[in-house]
Design a protein that fits this description.
The chain contains ten helices and six strands. By secondary structure, the protein is an alpha+beta fold. The longest helix is centred in the N-terminal third of the chain and has 68 residues.
């Protein structure tokens, strides 16, 4: 029975944590939906996207007709020598419009606006994926802190039990005072660890509450034994190729290059003519007459025409503008190359980290079983007198450290896979649904 007590205490602590989690448990997807409606960076990205859409629509005005209404009223004082003064009133009302017929720069500007909308969409996608990762990280941070606290509390109970054994053995003369002091020192150390771990859990909870805009958020723990998902695809180069096409940062850089190329074409149109269709209807009224006619009259004028503007020389402004846009195109191409290289490096690092993490989980699972066996053997040896108290305490520490590392390693694997999908630009809410399937119901 003494040999089974620490294991029962660990199970009780874990069960208490699971019970507390189930009291007001919130799934990862529910946490994400709450954060999506509250997160300021995501709202900023959404507003930026909306503004870019409206800005692109403004550019369409460059190829659509423009119509305006005008009205003026005035009085003219004219001094005629010889002959006296001639004063009169003039009133004008008119409607005039212009329809661009040939303005290549405006057409190119519309294409640029469409590319800019696509770039803003990529930025918004990146913000959504970033929020997904931040929510998952905060969610797992709380779970990891809960697991660590449960392990430390179970270790405290086991060390307290071992301290009681050592004191009893000392009282009956079966052990030295050294055993009691070693157990007391280990108990004091674990008590300090419990205080630090409890504070860490409080901090993690505050971070999750702030991200979700709620208080008292309680994540659901992983269901044990946890069957962690495998990487798909399993080949590194497949992830790299996917990232260089779908990653939001790469998409933004590619669209920025497209905009720069269009800007070169737009600058080159500075040498080209523009043609507009003009039309107007204007009414002029002279209640007191004018210099031309001394009696009251009005005129109605209707005009339709085509206006041609041909630039001849602009002080080399067009040539220098073209050179500037060519340099900006080269810069955008270099930025695209850098974005692709950076993303490829991130994907390779995260892919190897995810594989390493999965291997580490399997190794820690084996180490946990081995540590449990070692603890049982040392406790039995202590009871029969072939092991001393410090051996049992060290075996306990090794077991609880392994359990804590195993719990953290599981969360690290899940986060590595989510970050890998983010780096590849393919992270969606379905990935959160897949993680939800690993949580306790």
């Amino acid at each position: 029975m003494p040999r089974l007590l620490p294991t029962l205490l660990i199970a009780a602590a874990g069960g208490a944590a699971c019970g507390a989690a189930a009291l007001h448990a919130e799934t990862l997807v529910e946490a994400y939906e709450a954060a999506r409606a509250f997160d300021a960076p995501l709202q900023s990205a959404q507003a930026g996207y909306d503004a870019t859409v409206y800005r692109a629509e403004q550019l369409r005005a460059g190829v659509l007709p423009a119509v305006g209404f005008s009205a003026t009223a005035g009085r003219t004082l004219t001094e005629i020598t010889p002959g006296g003064d001639r004063n009169g009133n003039a009133q004008t009302v008119g409607i005039n419009g212009t329809q661009p017929l040939y303005r290549p720069a405006n057409r190119i500007a519309i294409e640029q606006g469409q590319r800019q909308v696509a770039a803003a969409r990529a930025a918004l996608d990146g913000a959504v994926q970033d929020l997904t990762v931040r929510v998952a990280q905060a969610y797992f941070d709380v779970l990891a802190a809960q697991d660590t606290l449960a392990v430390v509390q179970a270790q405290k109970a086991a060390v307290t039990q071992q301290l009681a054994f050592a004191q009893r053995n000392f009282e009956i003369g079966a052990a030295t005072i050294t055993d009691s002091r070693e157990a007391q020192a280990r108990a004091d150390l674990v008590a300090a660890q419990e205080i630090a771990t409890d504070n860490e859990l409080r901090v993690r909870r505050l971070a999750l509450d702030q991200l979700l805009g709620r208080t008292g958020v309680q994540p659901r723990p992983l269901a044990l034994p946890a069957a962690l998902p495998e990487l798909a695809p399993a080949m590194l180069e497949g992830w790299v190729a996917q990232a260089q096409e779908a990653q939001p940062a790469v998409r933004q850089a590619q669209l920025a290059l497209d905009v720069a190329r269009l800007e070169v074409r737009r600058a080159e149109t500075g040498h080209l003519p523009t043609v507009d269709l003009t039309a107007g209807y204007n009414v002029q009224r002279y209640p007191s007459g004018s210099l031309i006619l001394p009696f009251p009259y009005r005129t109605n004028a209707t005009s339709v025409g085509v206006q041609l503007n041909l630039p001849l020389f602009a002080g080399f402004a067009v040539q220098n503008r073209v050179r500037e846009t060519l340099a900006l195109e080269e810069r955008a191409a270099a930025d695209l190359d850098n974005a692709r290289r950076t993303v490829a490096q991130q994907v390779r690092t995260l892919f190897l980290g995810a594989l390493s993490g999965a291997s580490q989980v399997r190794a820690l699972e084996t180490a946990e079983a081995s540590s449990q066996s070692a603890l049982d053997a040392n406790r039995l040896g202590y009871e029969v007198g072939v092991r001393i108290n410090i051996d049992v305490l060290n075996a306990q520490s090794q077991l609880f450290q392994t359990r804590r590392d195993l719990a953290q390693a599981r969360y690290n694997v899940l986060m590595a896979q989510l970050r890998l999908r983010q780096a590849a630009g393919v992270l969606t809410t379905q990935d959160l649904q897949n993680v939800n399937a690993l949580l306790t119901p």
